[in-house]
Amino acid sequence: MGRHARPRPPHRIALGSLALLGAASAVGGAVGLGPHLMRADAPAGGDRAVRMAVPAPGPDPVGTTPPGPAPAAAPRPSSLSIPAIQVRTSLETLGLSPAGALQVPVRPERAGWFDGGPVPGQVGPAVVVGHVDSVDGPAVFARLSSLRPGDVITVGLGDGSSVRFRVTAVRRFAKDRFPTAEVYGPQPDPQLRLITCGGAFDGHRYPDDIVVFARLATTS
């Protein structure tokens, strides 16, 4: 087993600086830019600890209600498959901490679904996030930026069914110019967002975010 394949205890994870924004603020643009920004520090002990910017959700600036938490009866997503980049992972369920910070996947080889939004396959933008790397090497979304329009993403659900999406765009955004409404705003159809860090790691953080946009293809 190579060094990237060995188990990584949680205290060794280096968290990327994802701009995971719940909604846009009614004042001053995107939530998380300025006084609303909250940070969750990587646990001590990593030799390359970085910080993850986690803004609190805010009101929708266009006066509509963003998609809320999935109904309790809805089957939760359990797995994610992206053949084009050889990704096959189980999904953690991510919520918000008491302080309003978005939780992040505990293990770098697993992605996580944010349960404050829709289940994949429901109307609106379902959000899945993952680390790009850890102190031990590449993580689950290390190759996310190499996806191309037309690539297939399959989300397995807890009831045994699955939902297929096709990539429509892969974009890179500077963290201080993250298009909150475009990524998290209400949509008329089922969509998917995959998010990880991007750009050159400077020893403390990544300057950008990679966002994959996808639309529903089929269910089974």
From TrEMBL:
Pfam families: Sortase. The keyword Hydrolase applies. Residues 49-78 are annotated as: Disordered. Keywords: Hydrolase. SUPFAM superfamilies: Sortase (SSF63817). Residues 56-74 have a biased composition (Pro residues). InterPro entries: Sortase, Sortase_dom-sf, Sortase_F. Gene3D superfamilies: Sortase. This is Class F sortase. It comes from Streptomyces fildesensis.
